[in-house]
């Protein structure tokens, strides 16, 4: 292309830049009486009351629209201590209390849950205690029960191994502590670390929800976070998972995750927290104090925030895409065989790759770059000059080409490579990229390793049956 | 000894537009000190770059999308910013950002 | 520090492949690059033997390498294709002079016939004329819309069967991000297709859709291919630049990102029941369009009426106005005729 206009892509300019108009001393655009205190999308002034009415309505309709909750259902609220989940807790608290209008009373039973991630953030015991004390205090203030669990329990094989106490928490050494530190220490890139954290946190919350007998969990990410996460997911090859990772509902693990804050951008959350008197702790993340090119997640979030300041429709356009995309998993209770086609880590369907696709292209590049011209006599490719048909099987890129494993002999590649190829066979494209950066996968939860063994044995069995039938 | 380090710098693919449209530069650097690529980039910015440094450098390295070759090999193969320049080295900067 | 070619051929590596992080020597790189393009072509059944292929040639790196590689593969693997170069001259003073020279050199060096068509030939307007009318803010819209059709119209004139363009993996990744930012779900799905536009207009293919820009540039560099690099003088800004910068930053963070984004794009499936604009044909020129009248005709109508801005904003509104005026004109002609007889 000679210029950066992409010919296929000339749509009407849907991203509209911010119009310039004066909003000093503006009057609320809704009631037209009170002086505005809130400015949304750079152009819409609201007074405090009208903003709160609008926000509360939006929150409730997000939950209501999806018909996700049964009457009086028990729900876990994942509460980090930050502004977004703090506002979520407060909105629910106010909704449960008898508010001015009877018909909009919420009816469900919330319990808070907090994951103490301090260990991998290298926080001191004192700093960790400050945060968890804050969480306990906030729960008490709102009159909700709270369970706090330390992140390292994501490595626990069984939900009964979780150390849980209602409304109290002690930081105690556990057998998983050093394992988790070593696991994260073995991850090559921050991007992979952040992705691994997402997967392991989801596993832990699922364990917690199952243990506490809750089918549903509310998560607190807002529109700004989700828009960044959408681009981050795309940047990590997770196209098929957008519906789950960004949408309102994610039911991959069997526990249903819901995101009721997804309609609020950062700025709205800040106003909400302010008007609701939400107190928060400043939460560090893996990329805190690092530049915007520290990781893919950090880069895309900064990108979204920057673009949003010039194009106020950016965030809502992005996260709404997830509403229009399909999940690639059929139902909640898959059979053994179907479960083998789900990613071990994120439980999404493992993508099938057609003969001409990006994943095949990547695989071919790898093969060609390692074998060279001598490994591929050009005659092979000349047999059918313009028509090559059939599908390509390449679940793993590191296994040996001679297929010696199936002949009962040890593979010619080292066992390390074998482990890698076992892993890649049970992961979706996105998790495969992440695990490529995990140098000590043997530190992953033992259940994963067991399942890994089971699946590869089932695979070998299937292959031998196929050979027998032939 | 007052020897100098002589290297050639070649800007192409549109990168030359930032250097007064001159593609080939032969430069002499004082060789009593070692010159790593990181230092060279700063030197280029201060001594050769004619306009818009942000289109060439970003965050202490070349802007993403500009390829660097050291003696006709990808600089990623020689340590990127940490590569120590040798006498008679040829460094090529190719912009991929200009249309194709 | 000497790095050897990861194929084990014994030669010194000259580049690190962004798609796989492997280091390759010059010859293994040439082979791998060409063979991968060959695979893209054969696995998608992109061409049929005997077809006349128009290569959209701008004189820039992508189309220069495309012309070179297509000619090479066509001979090596007996595709049985006839290749022609097709260039479009937008009529921007100083902009095409050098790049057209570069295309002309391609014609001589690769012995592929060349046709140059100008906007003036096809639309009666040069881009310089258009800029005089609309200013620099929206001219890129005109340029892009007109260029797409120009290539098609030219290819039809030359009786070609198919158009091949030099779009590379970076371009595809950028387009995916672009369509996400626009929330354009229909184009989001279409932009990863192997063959587009086969309905009603000529099919278009992108043999480089999985080839990294970095590798194309290095291929041209090591093969000493002659191409022309410049930025359009009406430097397009807007937010495509943002998408492009994001792609480059992502690539810098993790070089496989570009192919990962394309994979993500290929896996996006639209939920049942989501309404998508139907692709039909323009009732005025017959070119593929999601509206009754295509964007190019709307833009042209605006220009010819001396009201170019009409067509830039919300095109539906502009369309409605246009159609209404046409109907009115038709009606008044009818009345005049009736009055006369």
What report would you give on this structure?
The complex is a heterotrimer of chains A (470), B (100) and C (341). By secondary structure, chain A is an alpha/beta fold. Chain A is 42% helix and 7% strand. With 100 residues, chain B is mainly β. Chain B has a single domain, classed as Ubiquitin-like (UB roll), CATH 3.10.20. The model of chain B has no long low-confidence stretch (mean pLDDT 86). Chain C contains 13 helices and ten strands. With 341 residues, chain C is an alpha/beta fold. The model of chain C has no long low-confidence stretch (mean pLDDT 85). In chain C, a hairpin with a 6-residue loop joins β9 and β10. Chain C has two domains: 46-269, Rossmann fold, CATH 3.40.50.620; 283-336, no CATH class. Classes of the chains: A alpha/beta (470), B mainly beta (100), C alpha/beta (341). Chains A and C meet through α6, α9, α10, α12 and α13 of A and α1, α6, α7, α8 and α10 of C.
Record the SSE blueprint.
The complex is a heterotrimer of chains A (470), B (100) and C (341).
Chain A: E1 38-40, E2 44-46, H1 48-65, E3 73-78, H2 83-96, E4 108-116, H3 125-142, E5 146-150, H4 177-185, H5 190-211, E6 216-218, H6 223-235, H7 242-246, E7 249-250, E8 256-258, H8 266-276, H9 296-310, H10 314-321, H11 336-339, H12 358-371, H13 378-382, H14 415-425, H15 429-436, H16 446-469
Parallel strand pairs in A: 3-4, 3-6, 4-5, 6-8
Antiparallel strand pairs in A: 1-2, 7-8
Chain B: E1 4-12, E2 24-30, H1 37-47, E3 57-58, E4 61-62, E5 66-70, E6 73-74, E7 90-95
Parallel strand pairs in B: 1-7
Antiparallel strand pairs in B: 1-2, 3-4, 5-6, 5-7
Chain C: E1 15-16, E2 23-24, H1 26-43, E3 52-56, H2 61-76, E4 82-89, H3 96-110, E5 114-118, H4 119-123, H5 127-134, H6 139-157, E6 162-164, H7 169-182, H8 185-190, E7 195-196, E8 204-205, H9 213-222, H10 240-253, H11 257-267, E9 280-281, E10 288-289, H12 295-304, H13 315-340
Parallel strand pairs in C: 3-4, 3-6, 4-5, 6-8
Antiparallel strand pairs in C: 1-2, 7-8, 9-10
